[in-house]
Amino acid sequence: MPARVDHDARRREIAEALWRVLARDGFGGLSLRTVAAEMGATTGLVTHYFGSRAELIDHALELLHARTDASLGEADVPLGRASLRTRLLAVLPTTGEAAELSRIWVGFWGLAIVDAGLSAREAARYERWRAWLRPHVAAGWPEADVETSVDLLTSSTHGLVVQALFDPDRFGPERLEALVDAQLARLGG
Q: What are the phi and psi torsion angles at 52 (to 5°)?
């Protein structure tokens, strides 16, 4: 009688191996073979669950979204300045785990730029982000041009992510916090 396989547990094992490959090698190093090697398993085992690199990338995005959402905390928080500040700071690579998450996101952007489907998904993700920011900006800065403020916060925060990844000595946690505070102080004129 063949051994029973816990397929959910096996997918979790593959997901963890996938995450380790992404954290170490980025999307450029992601393949069915590298995930299998990371697990100490055969490529056939991985292809039983994911038939192609594209399926692995889709699963990686699911993991990335789940980990990002978890790092951002509850979406249902009081509107205004304090919760907006907390959410913006949560996006920044101020811890080892946050830096790993940011490196993987930045690596994904390279794929999304050249793949229309991934690009559309990333654009939709950014729209969800802006939709979350809008009521916080409107509540905290009633005099502000909400759309302009949201676009500036989005671009500056994600620009800080990139800068902190390339120059962590200059853009350490305290500096990132000060820059977010400076950006928020400029909202609404």
A: -155, 170
Supply the pTM of this predicted model.
Answer: 0.81
What does the pLDDT look like over 58-110, one tens digit per residue? 888 888 778 777 766 665 678 899 999 998 998 999 999 889 889 888 888 88
Question: What proportion of the chain, given as a percentage, has pLDDT over 70?
Answer: 94
**Measured between alpha carbons, how far is residue 36 from residues 18, 32, 152 in Å?**
9, 6, 42
Q: How far apart are CA 124 and CA 128, in angstroms?
A: 6
Give the residue from 102, 97, 101, 157 showing the smallest Cα distance to 129. 157
Q: Over the range 76-89, which residues count as b (16 or more CB within 10 Å of their CB) and which as e?
A: eeeeeeebbbebbb
3-state secondary structure of 70: helix
| Residue in 125, 140, 2 with CA at minimum distance from that of residue 61 | 125
List the domains of the chain with CATH numbers. Answer: 1-72 (1.10.357.10), 73-189 (1.10.357.10)
Tens-place pLDDT, residues 7-28? 888 888 898 898 889 888 988 8
The rounded Cα 41 to chain-centroid distance in angstroms is 28
- Map residue 92 onto helix, strand or coil: coil
> Cβ atoms within 10 A of the Cβ of 62, count?
11
DSSP 28: G
User: What whole-number distance in Å separates Cα of residue 77 and Cα of residue 119?
Assistant: 29
